[in-house]
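Data availability excerpt. The first of two example chains:
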Amino acid sequence: MTSRPPRYPRVVLKLSGESLAGSQSSGIDPHTVARLASDIRDVREVGCELSVVVGGGNIFRGLRAAEMGMDRATGDYMGMLATILNSLALQDALEQSGVETRVQSALEIKEIAEPYIRRRAVRHLEKGRVVVFAAGTGNPFFTTDTAACLRAVEIGATIVMKGTRVDGVYSADPEKDKSATRYEELSYIKVLNDNLQVMDATAISLCMDNRLPILVFDVTQPGNLMRAVMGETVGTMVQDAS
């Protein structure tokens, strides 16, 4: 284990719901969640204050349900509940790894999670706990990407790290276009203008307004989270143009 301090002392890690499914098409794969928990534990041990926002797409997608005729707000609230299930699964895996963890929910569900309170979240981080932010922003029509950026700004995080299944941002879908090139660095404006699908426009704009960098990297590779936190070149960095 490295003795160097982390390059990013306070991080919000955004995980898609699909990242918890592993090789499955949906649901939660306990082995995948345990591996993610192990990476998070290692990062905590080098002194990084880490919080996590998990999506719910492995269980339910409100936007997809809306496209099939469901009321959009109802679908989004159902998606928020899916994020709570994923957050509890991650909390369990983290605590089995010996990491003290708190789930804070934007929807009140006091029997299983704390309400989201910014000052309390910061205090948990200062005490070495991992905080999992559940239920998005608590509002329909906002994605968990936006929730991750919002929470990062609120708690004074130094970066948002978006863990995906690919090793960064490409000019096109690399699985469909073999000529697609990977970017090492992008400006917020280029992401918005070229519609590169790093995050939704609201999330990108929020980070741009607050000069909060975003790192998109492959979280499925063991050790990549540690490399990212320590400042090694991993994935694609989105920040102000040089």
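And the second chain:
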Amino acid sequence: MTEAKTATAVLHPWHAHVRPDEHDRTPESALQEAVALTQAIDVDIKLAELVRINQPTPATLMGGGAVQTLAEKIAALEIKLVVVDHALTPIQQRNLERDFKCKVIDRTGLILEIFGARANTAEGQLQVELAALDYQRSRLVRSWTHLERQRGGFGFLGGPGESQLEIDRRLIEQRIARIRKELDKVRQTRALQRQNRISNQTPLIALVGYTNAGKSTLFNTITQAGVLAKDMLFATLDPTVRQMRLPSGRSCVMSDTVGFISSLPHQLVAAFRATLEEVELADIILHVRDAASDESEAQKLDVEETLREMGLDPEHDERIIEVLNKVDLMPPDERPFVVTRNGHERVAVSAVTGEGIDTLLQVIDRRLAAQREIISIDLHPAQGDALAWLHRHGNILRREDTDEHIRLQVALSPEDVGRWQHRFGEKKSAQENH
């Protein structure tokens, strides 16, 4: 027998006196996103409502009249969970639970619930737990009387008479410290893997974008990786790296990352720092956008804001290529084309139909080649070790074979040009810089 889903209400408070920017979401679209987020935890949404706020109330965020009206609707619909699409203080959360007579979670709590259900790798689970504990620590407040019961100490937990609240806080602090140590080990392992890629001169291409922009579908289309790709928010949480080959034959790796979202809780930005380190060190960053969404421009700004929190400069970072995805959902006359905007190349694609993928790969190839030096080399056919080295470290752009020599045009990084000259300089017949 299928277990009944929890009856749930989604409330989006909006400030009536805040004048929206031209790229800000409308309250209606923000509520729609909150509903989509809530659906990700598999509940039965009975009520979705905008709540107008003239002046935020310290006790409940929303005004007393609005709280009373909502409480009546919540009781009539027998709702067991209320999701408030806004940050709530611990006091506000407690008071709303008292007034609504059901469980209340805010936007941060909701996103943590989703992440907790979706993280599959040990690293992802540790990162989610760290964020959840950091959040939970802020919820331990003196006004929660059930945490104030006195208990005798066990010595290792605390002194005699220590309150349950203090014990809970101490246990949380200890667990946070242990998780941070474990994540440090994960980061060290990741750093070694990354160093191997760098030493092997394997370029890294990182995908970033608003959640549900189609990153995982694009990742699958390009790498045939079979990563979960669903029309839902936060379908991908754990970082995935796969090898791929560009049209020139050059090998590189692509990394799919967690989707960004507006008002991403700071606990999660910090907790997923290790995951997002792939972006910081990437050779190419593909910013995947949902071109068919009315919120595309606002989502772009949210992604760029998160990138700034990571220490990147999205306005001037020349590694960024904007990928305008889902053009198959747009009328032909509205489809964007490859253009350069603010120094960033933009490529229109459909990860579902494959439209524009070849163009995107050529743009990536060209961008990576621009980071390399093109040289001409003549090899003797017996120089198999030198030829193998060039295949491993460079990109063979042209090859001519005769009985006397193999003439190559090769793209190499400046570092590898130096290594080539040091290792094989005496053996080559000619080298010309272009």
